[in-house]
Design brief:
Helix content is about 45%, strand content about 20%. It contains 10 helices and 5 strands, in the order E-E-E-H-E-E-H-H-H-H-H-H-H-H-H. Helix 9 packs across helix 10. The relative contact order is 0.12.
């Protein structure tokens, strides 16, 4: 069982939500949430991820997390009937960890249903199944601050917009909703010029709808 991986980033793909980590000459393909992806460095930078190994007869996948707390919440979500790892990662990617935990503690079903693929019944099941299980996480995260995201090399704004659009559409958001949210984020002028930053801020805008 792999508990964590520490190596050099060989590749990162925001569209597919994955990174490939070179550990001793072996490239491990790891699925990550959008929140974790933002903390992963560029190729050739060091990277450490907490790992969950998902093994089935027809599938073997690695899921990576920036913190043990995120991994713990993933395990809780993955244990909810009919959620599974794919939807668990989608929920984790929708909000910063502390904010997501707060939504769960406060029972905000309307916020969970904003995540593509999470309907009313699934959101209800998540809240009913987790209940007090996330209270400990809420206490653990209280007072913690997230590290500032690493600066990324700037690319042409039009190219970044198109890639961000595709990432969010691939996650299940409707094209018109994404285009409207992107326009609002662009008009705010508060964008660093990196794909990760644009995706996260546009996602936050979509969640406010």
């Amino acid at each position: 069982m792999i508990g964590w991986l520490s190596g050099v980033v060989a590749h990162r793909d925001a569209r597919q939500g994955l990174v490939i980590v070179n550990v001793g000459g072996v490239g491990y393909e790891v699925r990550v949430s959008l929140q974790t992806l933002a903390s992963v460095g560029e190729p050739d930078e060091l990277c450490t991820l907490w790992i969950y190994t998902y093994a089935r007869e027809d599938q073997l996948s690695l899921f990576g997390f920036a913190s043990q707390a995120e991994k713990q919440l993933f395990l809780l979500l993955n244990g909810v009937p009919k959620v599974g790892p794919k939807h668990a990662m989608a929920v984790l990617g929708g909000f910063p960890l502390a904010e997501l935990v707060d939504h769960l503690v406060q029972g905000r079903q309307d916020m969970l249903t904003k995540v593509p693929g999470i309907g009313k019944k699934t959101a209800e099941q998540i809240l009913l199944s987790l209940g007090e299980k996330v209270a400990a996480l809420a206490e653990e995260l209280a007072g913690e601050t997230s590290p500032a995201p690493k600066a990324r090399p700037e690319a042409a704004p039009a190219a970044i917009d198109e890639e961000a659009k595709q990432v969010l559409v691939d996650l299940g958001w409707r094209l018109k909703e994404v285009e409207t949210a992107l326009a609002k984020v662009a008009s705010s002028g508060n964008v660093s010029g990196s794909l990760d930053d644009l995706v996260r801020k546009t996602l936050a805008q979509l969640m406010e709808r």
